[in-house]
Amino acid sequence: MELPVIDLATYLEVAAGGDSSPERSSGLTELCRGVSRILKETGALLVKDPRCTAEDNDRFIDMMEKYFEKPAEFKRLQERPFLHYQVGVTPEGVEVPRSLVDEEMQEKLRAMPKENQPSTPKGPDPKWRYMWRVGPRPLKTRFQELNSEPVIPEGFPEWKETMDSWGYKMISAIEASCLFGFACLHMIHPIKRLKLVCDVYSCLGCS
């Protein structure tokens, strides 16, 4: 299955109070129709956000490759099992896929047509991962292990800025996609709808 790439540039411009001319409105209407169709047919969107550049992605990927190339002895210094691996690194073989232990999920998977059944893991996750929560921790929390201070590997002075910057951009792209998808699925007049949704979203304190 090939998904068309949806460019969010037009939506972002209109949502920010930019060009709302009849020509732009017509183009946005057609884009909304396309997004609505894709969501109904596939439930997924492949988007391009002009705020997320290839250079930003390369900077993030290069840093993560540099980190994961380090020996296991170095990476285990960032391991925090006593915090349930909610910060820092999680080594290979630690996480167990839910589908291996959840009988209800297993039944649902078996009930699916063979051609639609996902590949089921046979054991613990063989890959390493790094947990990084974007932005500052809450001042008060009942879930300390979920909001512990981030773990920054030694020798990576760019770590925090790179992780937070790329994380915020990913979150912003997801927020824009959700708002745009909502607007398209409930389309009345595209520009009025998009502005209305953005106003509501801002009032909820989510932007």
From TrEMBL:
Domain of life: Eukaryota
The name this protein goes by in its record: Non-haem dioxygenase N-terminal domain-containing protein
Species this protein is from: Hibiscus sabdariffa
